[in-house]
Amino acid sequence: MIAIVDYGAGNLRSVAKALAKLGYMARVTSDPAAVAEAEAIILPGVGAAADAMENLRRFGLVDTLRDAVAQNKPFFGVCLGLQILFAASEEGGWHECLGVLPGTVRRLPPGPKTPHMGWNRVKQIGDHPLWKKIPDDSFFYFVHSYYVDPGDTSTVIGETEYGLTFPSVVARGNLVGTQFHPEKSGDTGLWVYDNFCQMAGLVPVAAGLGGRTG
């Protein structure tokens, strides 16, 4: 079972539908015990870092999520869910985040229109299971005004150009995160979720794209 963490940040149903289409069992929950017991965790997110952290604290999820990462449980952060994995965010001031990855979330530079909204390419860096059978420079769907500036650049496995070159995919152990929204990125986005589920050792229980061979 995959826990999709509900902390009031939205876009939960789209993630759940994507996993259902792939044939994987998932549960949307804000219960720390259910999250702790899950085989894998997806932390989605739309909104601001300060509100996200406040909601995580209110639901008692901060330590649960930190513990899951420390235990190397399969963990996927999406958009804001990626950003709040880092130490702090400059969005709306200075806000401490989960701090499971070193680095800061910064505003995209002036020039290109913000938020960065729409399809953009992701340049793959290195060979990683998340990229299994996904062509380099594939397009994914973005909606964000901030980007992650990691303290450890070895975690970066994908980059995107928009006013600057920013890390759009990071990975460390069983932890992965994308600045783009896989659930809004068509079949290629579904394959990203499928690859994550395969990394987690999960098996699809219904017909779908899961376990694809093509």
Name the shape in a single word.
globular
Total domain units: 1
- Corresponding CATH superfamily: Class I glutamine amidotransferase (GATase) domain
Unreliable stretches: 210-214
According to CATH, the fold-level topology is: Rossmann fold
CATH class label: Alpha Beta
Q: What's the CATH architecture name?
A: 3-Layer(aba) Sandwich
- List how many beta strands DSSP finds: 13
Structural class category: alpha/beta
| Strand line-up across the major sheet | 2-1-3-4-13-12-11-8-9
State the end-to-end distance: 25 Å
Q: Would you tell me the overall average pLDDT? A: 93
Q: How would you spell out the order of helices and strands? A: EHEHEHHEHEEEEEEEEEH
Explain what you see.
It is a single chain. The protein has 214 residues and is an alpha/beta fold. It has a single domain (2-199), classed as Rossmann fold, CATH 3.40.50.880. Helices cover 25% and strands 32% of the residues. The protein starts with a strand and ends in a 15-residue tail after the last helix.
Descriptors:
four-stranded mixed β-sheet, alpha/beta, Rossmann fold, disordered C terminus, nine-stranded mixed β-sheet
Quick structural gist:
25% of the residues lie in helices and 32% in strands. It is α/β, with parallel strands linked by helices.
Secondary structure layout:
Elements: E1 2-5, H1 12-22, E2 26-29, H2 32-37, E3 40-43, H3 49-58, H4 62-70, E4 75-78, H5 80-83, E5 86-89, E6 95-96, E7 101-107, E8 116-124, E9 138-144, E10 146-150, E11 156-161, E12 165-172, E13 175-178, H6 186-199
Parallel strand pairs: 1-2, 1-3, 3-4, 4-13, 5-7
Antiparallel strand pairs: 5-6, 7-10, 8-9, 8-11, 11-12, 12-13
